[in-house]
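Hello again,

I reread your note about wanting to compare the complex against the isolated chains. To keep things tidy I'm splitting this into two emails, and this first one only covers the full assembly. Below are the input lines as submitted, including protein chains and any nucleic acid or small-molecule components. They are followed by the predicted structure of everything together. The single-chain runs will come separately.
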Amino acid sequence: MDTFLQQLINGIVLGSIYSLVALGYTLVYGIMGLINFAHGDIVMVGAMVTLTVARLLADSGLPGPVILGIGVLTAIPACMAVGYLVERIAYRPLRNAPRLAPLITAIGVSILLQNLAMMIWGREYLSFPQIFPAQTMAVGGASISTIQFLIIVSSAIMMAGLSRLIRKTRLGNAMRATAQNPEIATLMGVHVNTIISITFVLGSALAAVAGMMVSAYYGIAHYDMGFILGLKAFTAAVLGGIGNIEGAMLGGLLLGIIESMGAGYLGTLTGGVMGSNYQDAFAFFVLILVLVFRPSGLLGERVGERP
Amino acid sequence: MKKTLKFAAYAAILAILPFATGLAFGKTWVRILDFALLYVMLALGLNIVVGFAGLLDLGYVAFFAVGAYCYALLASPHFGLHLPFWIILPIGAFAAGIFGMLLGAPTLRLRGDYLAIVTLGFGEIIRIFLNNLDTPYNITGGPQGIDLIDPIRLGSFSLNQPTSHTVYSYYFLFLLFALATAFVSMRLQHSRIGRAWAAIREDEIAAEAMGINTRNIKLLAFAMGASFGGLSGGLFAGFEGFVSPESFTLTESIMILSMVVLGGMGHIRGVIFGAILLSILPEALRYVGPLEQSLFGRIVVDPSSLRMLLFGLSLILVMLLRPAGLWPSPARKRELLAHGETAKHENANIYDAGR
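Full-complex prediction:
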């Protein structure tokens, strides 16, 4: 029972991070039908900027959460700027191009960002300064650390906020209208190009926060960390039904829990044949299984082929 | 007569090319040529799935891996088997084809990007298994992979003997296979099956209404594309003499996809051009280090990251300037031009109204 609860908590923490990144994928996909392959690398930029700020302030005597707050407030505008530029330069000119053309530019942007980061921060693994006391709380036989607690709470708040933004505000209305039909949205007075830019910037801000969480949680950052993280988050978005906001949240949480359960139980379930080194394979296997039975993801609507 | 002359000229160029390259740039570059030919085969195989049938596959390298490991297991001291290559290559291609069907069967109902992520997941699953199947029984050799793989032998003639000729002998072997692959692709494209693929790509429902068995035709696309990949995998294993999961990462799949799209999806000459260009470009960019040295007298930025940076930049620039690929098929170009004009016209009316 203790292992179960502990793996559940770890899974929720991991899942919260996946959800935040997956939201970035799903927002962009919902509006433009584009897989933004470079999104994971924007998370990396967020992690790197936070880490740099945290290193500068580590000896200043400020309390941990304040340092982290300053770090993330630096990372958010940085990532927003990167996201805006990427959309403007690499995706906007290809709005009417064949479907796979923006996919290739996205891959190009991803390679570009990784290597720029390597030039700036070097190719070594950078460690996050120890600004949090290694304090844990006991929750019914399992333990939860301060940073884990912070991650769960702050991502819950952000997701609730985003949900509200999409459902209740004028901006959210415009975003949903653009997602449904950009041309009609234009006729209704929506500035489609502005909305698309805002979507990218919003996704990048979430990515910055996720980057802060990843680097603080694992205590490490690296120029190609965004690749695998982006892959997982994209998987999560598809699992939930890509283009669907709630789907991304659910998919992220589920994927996180599946992974940590896989890590915890795969060994005992298969009699030691498959250990935790199969946890990624297990996650993808579950994804394929879900898509076989629900081809549009868990919460995705059945839609015809995009025109 | 003119045709024969043209053919003879091409044959002469292709025959002289490795020796000229070897003399001018050294053997490393002949080796790069060998790999370029291998990539031509892979890109043509993926082109069947992506270009002809319009199914986005992000895990293509898995089939390459299946072919390579088939060769490695059946012709190395690992299991003590030493079968000749002309038996293993068909086995590898067949095994890869089976895997292609395995991937295709559950994903038939999926569309576009859902399919992409499943193929991606499939590729990762294969790689993870290759990486971990050294316990409890050592099948794949785990992360260390399998080495001491037999070279490709024709009778008593080994392509690795004498070692100074290896890259040249493999060049001609790979050239033969690449040409055969191109020929088969070309014939496939204009066959009944090829037309069925095109119909599915353009409009699946209409294709079904025309009496095309979309399920079988899609599975066939997966199996065909996969067996091309398996074949190149076998050749790769024989050439390298060593396989490990390192060679079969997602990055490799993405690279092959970039070759197909950048060259001109669905257009065989374009795809071949894309494959050659993208396998040579990163190697050519290795010279940025020395270039920097001679320009500034010292290394200003890390040459290896500058190299990949330029590579990423060129991917973006090419796609921005030529969204249909560098060398699209004439029909597609016409289509796109017409479509682009209308789209531009509509945009001028709708998106930019009053701005």
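For quick reference: Residues 303-307 of chain A have pLDDT under 50 and may be disordered.

B.
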